[in-house]
Amino acid sequence: MIIHPEYNMIPALKILWKEGFKDDDKYIDFFFSNRFKPENTFVYMENGSPVSMASVFNAKLYLNSVFLPAGYIYAVTTLPVHQGKGFSTAILEHINKIYPTTFLVPLAGALNFYEKRGFTPAFTLNEIELHLCDIKAPDKNFITKTVSADEYKHIRDSHFINDGYICWDTEAIAYALAENTFCGGSAVKIEIDEKKGTHGILLYKKQNGRLLITETTLPLPMLHGIAYNLMKQENVSTCCLRLASGKTSASRPFGLLYKDTGGAAVKNGYCNLVLD
């Protein structure tokens, strides 16, 4: 049986999350304190206990000049002892009957699992690796300021809007920025052109001994100097830079769209801020 959980089920859901993803207890507590909502959570019950779960967050898919309602399927997991029984598949099928469009970002090694259940590649990312030894120190100072969720959303939407763009509401962006801060990162806006008053956004954190720039709207030449400063600041020598895929740039598969909701119509879409 698939249900929306009650708040008194949170301790059991935390155990389910812990067994599925091996995350730190503080991170799990952060999620359940700041993003969990019963109405957005689907739980498979077996003998009165939760054995499988998934969350769905509201988003919009921009396609053919129209914003389509979409659900981001997140944190799909099943207790190890109950894996292989079809519980998560049942949850996915249940969710896809409710939401007109769904998408997800599979964990490493899980692509085949989701493709067999009707999801198809639709979103890509261009990833560039920068090395401190290959970059010159910038010859100018960059003006950086804190950025609110509203400002971040405005700059993000204006920059990335194109067919296949996943647009988040302010609540989702506020959580993504807070989650990044919880993980030791920062979100800033940086002045691009003083005369025009234009700014770009930059979301970054130190991860696995390197700098990860998760999202940015800054021009690439400018990014080299900023990456240099941040690598010095974070005491790392490598930076992974995520960018939207261009028509000529190399890219890697990133996210999947449920094929019965238009997956075949999206190629090289931009999907980010997915809490991966």
What does this 3D model show about the protein?
The chain is α+β, with helices and mostly antiparallel strands and 276 residues long. It has two domains: 103 residues, Gcn5-related N-acetyltransferase (GNAT) (Aminopeptidase, 3-Layer(aba) Sandwich); 119 residues, 3-Layer(aba) Sandwich (Aminopeptidase), CATH 3.40.630.30. It has seven helices and 13 strands. Helix 3 links the parallel strand 4 and strand 5. Helix 1 crosses helix 2. The relative contact order is 0.16.
Describe the structure using short key phrases.
Aminopeptidase; 2 domains; 7 helices; 13 strands; alpha+beta; 276 residues
Assess the beta-strand content as a share of residues.
35-45%
User: What is the CATH level 1 assignment of the largest domain?
Assistant: Alpha Beta
Mean pLDDT: 94
List low-confidence stretches: none
The CATH topology of the largest domain is given as Aminopeptidase
Main sheet record: 13 strands, mixed
CATH architecture of the largest domain: 3-Layer(aba) Sandwich
Number of domains: 2
- Kindly state the number of beta strands: 13
Which class do the helix and strand fractions yield?
Answer: alpha+beta
Distance between the termini: 28 Å
Provide the succession of SSEs. Answer: EHHEEEHEHEEHEHEEEHEE
Instruction: Work out the radius of gyration.
Output: 20 Å
